[in-house]
Structures are given as structure tokens and as C-alpha cells.
Amino acid sequence: MDNDSPEGLVIDNQKDGLFRVNRRTFTDPHILELERERVFEQCWIYAGHESEIPHPGDFRARRVAGRPVILVRGTDSQVRVLLNTCTHRGAMVCRERAGNARTFQCAYHAWTYNNQGELVGVPGEDAYSAAFDRSKLGLASAPRVESYRGFVFVSFNPVIEDLVAYLAGAREYLDLVCDQSEQGMEIISGTQLYSMRANWKLLVENSIDGYHGLPTHKRYFLEFLPDAGVEVQGMRIAGTAKSLGNGHAVIENPELPFGRPIADWIPSWGEAKKAELEAVYRQLVNRFGAERAYKIAKVSRNLLIFPNLIINDIMSVTVRTFFPFTPDYMEITAWALAPRGESAEDRALRLDNFLTFLGPGGFATPDDVEMLEACQRGYAAVREVEWSDISRGMQRKDPLATDELQMQVFWRRWNELITCSRPVRVREAA
Ligand code: FES
Ligand SMILES: [Fe+2]
């Protein structure tokens, strides 16, 4: 393999059941540049949830695909994703993380934009010539913005296929998350922001990795849960893994020991809660039939929407996204998603679950951070030990959640984009 070429970084030997990834993919700045250009610039990237900005004027400022953006609901009620850079000389016009505003005024020379992005005020406008056209100097928008059931995505590729087509089989799994409540789902206010000294793809792998659950999170499964009165005897992580097309994948595990605030009761929650969750379950059966209700309520799932959105629908629903700054550093943002209008008690239970396992100070995330940073530190020996092995279960007919099919799915798509062998599909001409 030539050092500048992205060819040959993934070995996908289906005949012999071997799958290997070159560790340069985690360390090389040139690969990160290619990822920006061929992955993050090309795909649909999660920007936020409509419930975060319920009222006209509500906004959230954040980074998406490396850009500063403002996710905002205009006075006209339309959701936009505006680029947070002044068209005068570039300063970020919104420096608050969240709020409600009719206008954004740049702090540098006070150009003012309304919450639909139009430039509405330029101090001393008489100094400009007739060619200065204020109507062309509004805040730019991401070229494509689409949402699916409240999940807002952007793409910097103007010709990419529509979001629903891009989601492919992942759409059905998003539906299983969204159908948990008749009133719809909402992001609970509050954001987890943290970072890791590790490559972003390590977190993709880790978020859909059933194999690491017991060894890495021994303390949670074998000490904390039993201490909290949860029955873990005979517990197995024995679910399944599926490719969902376009690099998306899911692992699913039925009836894990931790319980789900959506209608999967465990004894440590008490008898009163049992009756309540059974009632919720009956409603789900009435709405969707027994099979789908079971999937919605009793099956936990970790869903990857390629390239960098994870929905962990387990003991709470975590929406997690992340972006690399350097090959060995990423920032992660996570939110809790919950049924609108759930009782205060259920909300408290859900938040407790959200923090206890997946919170940055919980029982799982610090363990994962430690392991991912340990991998990254191990890659200092990349010249001597070039390859990581991701072959587990490769020849199994029905792959398990503890296999590595879901990671192979990610890496195959990554490799196709990086080597330009199968680019993102474009939208059909209107
Ligand atoms: S950079 Fe914003 S007004 Fe000058
Ligand atoms: Fe983990």
C-alpha cells in the first residue's frame, strides 16, 4: 500500500471470513482530510431535533459537520440550519448556545439578521454603493436540510438523495423509537458534552459493540445492578446484528436486565410501576399489534445512522453524535429523548437511567472512554502492528450482537466513500 493512497486500508475477505482494518485509518491526518471531503461533506449529518426549538425564535447554536450553525425556528415557524458566520467579515453572529431571538446582531460591526437569516440592518448603509445588495447577504444555509419525524439532518452535498432514501432500512428502526409515544418524542432539555482522545471511528465501533459489554462494564452489570436489586443471574447479551443499507446498522437485544421506562418493567421498580407499565404495553399492543409492540417496548437497540449518529434505545434513549478535530481527538454531544407528556416519576426514572449508564460520569461511558483512549494510545505502534481484526462472526449465517458484522457494515461503506468506489447516491432530477 502506498502511503498516500486510501486503497487497501480495509481487507474484506469474505471467502476466508477475515476482516481487517489498517490502523492508519485512526492516526493519519491525511485520512481525516479525506473523511471530511468524502464522508462528512457527502452524507446526511444529524443537526438536531425539532423539539429542541419548539417556539418561533427558539435557537440552538452548535457545530455540525465541523461548521458553526444555528438551528433556529424562524418567526414563520420554519426550521432552518443557518451558518453562524457573518457575511460581512466572518464573526459568529450568535454566541449563545441556546435561547429565543427575533434577531442575531453581529458583535463586531453590528450587522443584524432576523431569525429567518435575512440581513435587516447595516449601520451606515449609505456608505455602500448601489451594487451592494443587502438581500443577497443573509446568513447562508446548509445546502440541504430535511427532517424525518423530528430528526433534522443537513447535507453539504446539494445533490445527495433525499433523506428518507438515504436512511434506507434505518428508517424502520427510527420509527420503532418514535412510536414509543402517541404524543411524539422530545429531547429533554440539557446536553451532555464531552471529549475523548480517540479517533471518532472508535466510538462508532464501540456504540454498536455487544462483545465488550460484560468485560468493559463488569462493574455495572455484575456489581451495580445486583446491588440495586436487579436480577442478572444467567444474563446473556445474545441479541442480533443487522445491516440496514448505506452503512447503517443495528444491534438488538430483547429483555436485557436493566428494564426500559417504555413498558419493560423490572422488580426493583416496585409493584405500582408494574401495573402502570403493563397499561402502557397494552396501549402499544392496541396501536401496533403484539409483534411490533414487543419490539418497541421490550427490545433494546443500538442504532448507527452512518456516519456519526448513534441512537441507543436501551434503558433510556440516548441520541449521540460526534465529530473529529484531529485523528486522535473528538467531541461528543448527547441528549436524552423521551415521550412527550410522560409522568414526572417516569421522567425521573428515565433520567436516572440516562445518567447512570451512558452519562459521561455514569457507569459505562468512563469505562468506554478509558478503553477507546487505550486503543488510540496503542496505535502509537502502528508501524509495527498495522492491522486491527474485526472478523468476529463473519461467516455466521445470522450474526449476533456480540459479533462484528455491524462494524464491518460501517467500514465497508466508509471504504467505498474514501476510495470513491461507490459514492453517495444523488437525488433524481425533479
Ligand atoms: S463581521 Fe459581522 S458586522 Fe462585521
Ligand atoms: Fe460500552
Notes on the protein architecture:
There is one protein chain. The chain has 430 residues and is α+β, with helices and mostly antiparallel strands. Helix content is 28%, strand content 26%. The protein has twelve helices and 21 strands. It has helices spanning 24-27, 29-40, 163-167, 170-178, 200-207, 213-216, 218-227, 271-288, 290-298, 344-358, 365-378, 405-418, and strands spanning 10-13, 18-22, 45-49, 58-64, 67-73, 79-83, 98-100, 103-105, 112-114, 119-121, 144-148, 151-155, 185-187, 192-196, 240-245, 248-254, 299-305, 309-313, 317-326, 329-339, 387-389. Strands 13, 14, 15, 16, 17, 18, 19 and 20 form an eight-stranded antiparallel beta sheet that branches. Helix 8 (271-288) crosses helix 9 (290-298). The longest helix has 18 residues, at 271-288. The protein is globular and about 80 Å long. The model has no long low-confidence stretch (mean pLDDT 94). FE2/S2 (inorganic) cluster binds next to loops.
Chain-wise SSE layout:
Blueprint: E1 10-13, E2 18-22, H1 24-27, H2 29-40, E3 45-49, E4 58-64, E5 67-73, E6 79-83, E7 98-100, E8 103-105, E9 112-114, E10 119-121, E11 144-148, E12 151-155, H3 163-167, H4 170-178, E13 185-187, E14 192-196, H5 200-207, H6 213-216, H7 218-227, E15 240-245, E16 248-254, H8 271-288, H9 290-298, E17 299-305, E18 309-313, E19 317-326, E20 329-339, H10 344-358, H11 365-378, E21 387-389, H12 405-418
Antiparallel strand pairs: 1-2, 2-21, 3-12, 4-5, 4-7, 5-6, 8-9, 9-10, 11-12, 13-20, 14-20, 15-16, 16-17, 17-18, 18-19, 19-20
Helix pairs in contact: 8-9
The structure holds FE2/S2 (inorganic) cluster (FES) and fe (ii) ion.
